[in-house]
Amino acid sequence: VAPHSKSTMEDKTAKPVAEELREVKRVNGVPVVDTVAKKRKVSFKKDLPMMMHGFGDHINPYDETLELVDDIVREFIVGMTQKALGKRRGAVTLTDLMFVIRKDKKKYTRAKELLRIMNTIKEAKSPYEKE
Fold it and tell me: What is the number of alpha carbons within 13 Å of residue 51 lying toward its C-beta?
């Protein structure tokens, strides 16, 4: 989302989209924890501008845009984690996450490809790490 002129962003009567997203309690039909209310809040705001620029956004996106995308990413991660855990407690495993995305061919294929690349990099580094 490319930045707009500052004059259009100064309308104080409109409710920011990030605030509307905080009110959402479900992701893909699964209830999510309100991550905004938690004391310890993980943020991806440092990494998001580079990622967004790589996908064609402006090099310096608005803070509101970063906040919105950060909220969406956190809610997605929390939702996926909750789906993977189901009703049990404990750590989420790779197998749990792969099970959750098994029916989404695009996500499943991408995850398998990233795992393959990760293993290739790991194997390529291993001879140098032993020295």
Answer: 10
What is the rounded distance in angstroms from the CA atom of residue 97 to the CA atom of residue 86?
11
Rg from Cα positions in the chain: 19
Q: Using CA atoms, how far apart are residues 76 and 70, in angstroms rounded to an integer?
A: 10
How many other β-carbons are positioned within 10 Å of the β-carbon of residue 70? 20
Q: What is the pLDDT along the chain (131 residues), one digit of tens a residue?
A: 444 444 444 444 444 444 444 444 555 555 455 544 445 578 888 999 999 999 999 999 999 999 999 999 999 999 999 999 988 888 899 999 999 999 999 999 999 999 999 999 999 998 887 66
